[in-house]
Design a protein that fits this description.
With 303 residues, this protein is of the alpha/beta class. The protein contains 13 helices and 14 strands. The protein is globular. Bound molecules: ligand FO1.
Length: 303
């Protein structure tokens, strides 16, 4: 089966499917990618990779467990701007990725090599090997993604988004087949605007999702009117959408068959069904590994 994912929520649900023993392709957003200290950093790819490898820092949801920061401390002493927290082991990933990209390997091949080295069985696919950069229009002007998300702690109101480069981006090898050839495709509980749309916006991907014979499910990242993690609720609000599982369902109507919503949002089911979507009401709060597997199995049973 195939999961379309962004950061933490997508990584955790993907792990649930891996724990359920399901052969898995994960198509991952690259709009958060950035270059810092001369290194190519792919946060969503790394979050998925580290989580599937069982190496992720579970509290923060990104980076590696049991990190040290000697290099970052020394970089600060050398006068570098170190607002983006990079641990010593995480830096090894970025050094290896940068070296291989510079040697001419595409991001998809580099990702496959790194994931295999970490013992990940699932196929982790960047949605494209081409550069795509999520830019956010705010009252303070246009911000690059990590500037908005980390440096400014996603405090700015998002008035618009641009996925720079996306119209010229081509799906990475295996991405379209992963969507059209799957029996089940799941849109993870990721931020619709920061994670899902930069995946679907790569030419050919949305169409693949619209036309696949797979059973298609989307998990709402909004529970009880709030996001579990990150700025999804604020962005829905400032872009004029209802901040609820129904508001998210309206974004996905026509793209999926089933909208998966949390028990607390059960009353929204009729309005979501009126959009032509089936609704699965379940406990979508994953927590640890067994919660992730439980949700994955609930989705498989309803697909
Ligand atoms: N998120 C933060 O809020 N602060 C950080 O310092 C930070 C560092 C970081 C380093 C590597 C990495 O792979 C992810 C990192 N993230 C950090 C998360 C990153 O901003 C992701 O883009 C978000 O999780 C959104 O997907």
């Amino acid at each position: 089966m195939t999961v379309l994912a962004g950061g933490v929520g997508g990584a955790r649900l993907a792990q649930g499917f891996a724990l359920a023993g399901v052969p898995l392709d994960v198509v991952v957003n690259v709009g958060d990618d950035t270059v810092l200290h001369g290194l190519n950093i792919s946060p969503d790819l790394d979050t998925v990779m580290y989580t599937l490898a069982g190496l992720a820092d579970e509290e923060r949801g990104w980076g590696l467990r049991g990190e040290s920061y000697a290099t970052l401390t020394q970089l600060t002493a050398l006068g570098e701007d170190t607002w983006f927290t990079l641990g010593d082991k995480d830096l090894a990933t970025h050094v290896a990725r940068t070296a291989r990209l510079r040697a001419g390997a595409p991001l998809s091949a580099v990702t496959a090599q790194l994931a295999a080295a970490l013992g990940v069985a699932a196929r982790i696919l960047p949605v494209t090997d081409d550069p795509v950069a999520t830019l956010l229009d705010t009252p303070s002007g246009r911000l690059a993604f990590q500037e908005y998300f980390v440096r400014r702690r996603h405090a700015d109101a998002v008035l618009g988004l641009t996925y720079d480069g996306i119209d010229d981006a081509r799906p990475a090898p295996g991405v379209l087949d992963a969507v059209t050839g799957a029996d089940v495709v799941v849109v993870a509980p990721s931020n619709p605007f920061l994670s899902v749309f930069p995946v679907l916006g790569v030419p050919g991907v949305r169409r693949a999702l619209e036309t696949t014979t797979a059973r298609r499910l989307a998990v709402s990242p909004i529970v009880g009117g709030r996001a579990i993690k990150g700025p999804a609720a604020q962005i829905l609000e400032t872009l004029g959408h209802e901040v609820s599982a129904l508001g998210v369902a309206r974004l996905y109507a026509g793209l999926v068959d089933v909208m998966v919503i949390d028990d607390v949002d059960a009353a929204l089911a009729p309005a979501i069904e009126a959009l032509g979507l089936d609704v699965l009401v379940t406990d979508t709060i994953m927590g640890g590994a067994d919660g992730r597997e439980r949700l994955a199995r609930a989705l498989l049973e309803s697909s």
